[in-house]
Predict the structure.
Amino acid sequence: MKDLQFANTIASLRKTNGLTQDEVANFVGVSKAAVSKWETGLSYPDILLLPKLATYFNLTIDELLGYKPQMTKENIQKLYVELSQDFATKSFDEVYSHIKNIIDEYYSCFPLLLQMAVLLLNYQPIAGELKDEVMQKIITLCQRVEEYAENPRLSFQARSIEASCQLMIQNPERVLDLLGNGVEPYIGNEIIVANAYQQLQQTDKAKETLQVSMYQYILGIVSIASNYLMMNSTQLGKFDEMVERTEKVIEAFDLGHLHFNSTLIFYLTSAQGYMMQNREEKAIVMIKKYVKVAQSIEFPITLHGDEFFDLIDGWVDREFDLGSNAPRDEQSIKHSLISTIQDNPVFKPLLQKQEVRLMLTNLQHTLGCD
C-alpha cells in the first residue's frame, strides 16, 4: 500500500513538473528503468536516495513518502467517534490492537495521543484481563505528551489524566508530584482578561470569557461537592446541608439538562452516602432524582449551553479536541446509566423494594434497553 502510494506520488510529481524519467534518473544517479519501476510500484528507491529525491521536488521526505505524522483536529474527532462505536460492536482486544497501531503511526501527534489516552480511560473498565496493560498504556501516553509536547495546554491535560490514573492504581505520591500538594489562591485572571478585551472594544470576547468561566466554576462546585459529601458521610448535619445547598445550585442553573453527567454523579453520591448512614428513604429520593435526569437525556449526546449560557457552544467547538461529541458510544452510556445502580453493592437492599425496581424498569424502557 505504501509502495503504491509512493509510486503514484513520484509519477504525479514528475508529470506535474514536466520531467521525463530520464531527467529524474540523471539527477538522482540511477537508470531510467529504476525510475520506471518506482512509478509502477515494482521497486522502491534506496533510503539514501530519498533526501536527494525530496530536494529535487522541493518536498520533505515525509511528503514524498505520503507520510503525515500529524492529524487534524477534525480527523481526530472523527477517529475518536469511530473507535467509540467500534467498542460497542467489536471485541475489546480487536479495537485495542487497532488503537495501538494508530498510536505507533502517529507517535509524534500529541493531540491524538492525548485523545487516545482519554478514549482508553473511558473504556478501560471493559478491558477484562487487559485492564492493567491498558492503564499502563494510558500513563505512558500521558507521560510522552507531558515530556515532549510544546503546547502547555496539552501538557497540563496530560498531567491531569495521568493523575487520575495514578489515583485509580493507588499511587497518591505520584498524584501530588503531578498536581502539587495545595490549592493556589484564587487570582481571577479571567476577570482581568475580560476587562482587557473590553478595553480593546471586543465586547463579545469579554462576555464569552466571563460566561465560560462561570460555567466551569458552577460545574466545578457540583463536582467538588460530590467528593466532599463522601468525606463527610459520618457527619449527618454537614452531609444534609451539603446536599441541600448543592441541589439549589443544580436547580438554579438547570444542570440536569445543561450538564447531566455532573448532576447524575451528585445524586448517585448522595444516595450512596445515605445508604452508608442507613437512611434508605432519603437514598430512594436521590435515586428517583437520578432516574428523572437520566430519562431526560437527549441522544445523541452533545456538550452544549442553554438560553442562559448562550456563548458556550462556540467555545466548546473551538477549544475541545473532541468538540461537542460524547466521550463514549451511546450504547455504553445507556448501559452504564442502569448498571451504576443495579450493579452497585451498596444499593442491593434497595433493589428488593418494588418502588426502586419499577424506577429502574421504567429507565430501561425509556433508554430502549429492555
Observations:
- The mean pLDDT is 93.
- DSSP finds 20 helices and no strands in the chain.
- Residues 62 and 68 are 7 Å apart (CA to CA).
- The radius of gyration is 27 Å.
